[in-house]
Design brief:
single chain, alpha/beta, 10-stranded mixed sheet, two-stranded parallel sheet, 21% strand, globular
Length: 254
């Protein structure tokens, strides 16, 4: 259900936002039975060994040939540019992710396409997200833990940008309406998505209060945008990560 709910079985699948991008990529990599690439267009930590079968970290001009070679014997290949601040790897140019995806013949390539500094909510900066032009699916993520919290640097990456997109003031309690606006905004979660399928994900739903607030946020987002037809509610670190799929215009439970 995870792969289908997030439209993540094939193509270049990019994750943006805050509140569990890496964890979601790891869960997708664990669930997918096919040949996978795992990458990031921004600096990131290595993919843990249990979610990859081989890792290629090298100079940009050497990556393609080495990943293609690795893909002949390894089902899940993580690849990255050498970073300036180990253990973090460097981000790969989006166009190179596209080239490697095609040449290696991956069924899917999962891409972390922006950073959030471990916060629960964010809006994109000037040069974000770093999406390949041929991205098949974009999964914007926000943590349900931000709901009911005051908008500040404690929970938000660049809170002033979150304020500009959502209409919330710095210090104001974030409501489901604010999160719905973020997910539906062309200046927020939908920035730069092109023609990709969009499946917003509200993660870290730890209890009934957060579930009710996340469900309300999902309905607000669906009311505000025609760009997506469902919002996935989840707890990605749970044994069964999908809690509910809220769909306003399709036959999905909600």
């Amino acid at each position: 259900m995870l792969l289908d709910a997030l439209s993540a079985r094939r193509g270049i699948v990019c994750l943006v936002g805050a509140g569990g991008k890496k964890t979601t990529i790891h869960r997708l990599a664990a669930a997918h039975p096919g040949r996978l690439g795992l990458a990031a267009t921004v600096p990131t930590l290595p993919v843990p060994g249990e979610f990859r079968d081989f890792e290629v970290v090298d100079e940009i001009n050497l990556l393609t040939d080495k990943v293609v070679a690795a893909s002949r014997h390894a089902r899940r290949v993580a690849f990255a540019k050498l970073g300036d601040k180990p253990p973090r790897h460097g981000g790969i140019p989006p166009e190179l992710v596209e080239e490697i995806h095609v040449r290696a013949g991956f069924d899917a390539t999962y891409v972390k396409a922006d950073g959030a500094r471990m916060r629960w909510i964010k809006a994109p900066g000037e040069h974000e997200p770093q999406l390949p032009g041929s991205a098949t699916t974009v999964i914007p993520i926000v943590s349900a833990r931000a709901l009911g919290e005051a908008l500040s640097e404690r929970i938000a990456h660049r809170p002033e940008l979150v304020a500009a997109v959502t209409g919330a003031r710095i210090g104001e309690i974030l409501s489901p309406v604010h999160v719905g606006r973020l997910l539906a905004s062309p200046d927020g979660a939908l920035r730069g998505i092109g023609g990709a399928v969009v499946v917003p994900l509200i993660n870290m739903i730890d209890d009934g209060r957060l579930l009710a607030a996340a469900r309300e946020a999902a309905h607000h987002a669906l009311d505000l945008s025609r760009r997506f037809d469902r919002v996935v509610l989840a707890r990605m670190n749970a044994a069964e990560p999908i809690i509910e799929v809220v769909g306003a215009r399709v036959g999905i439970a909600g």
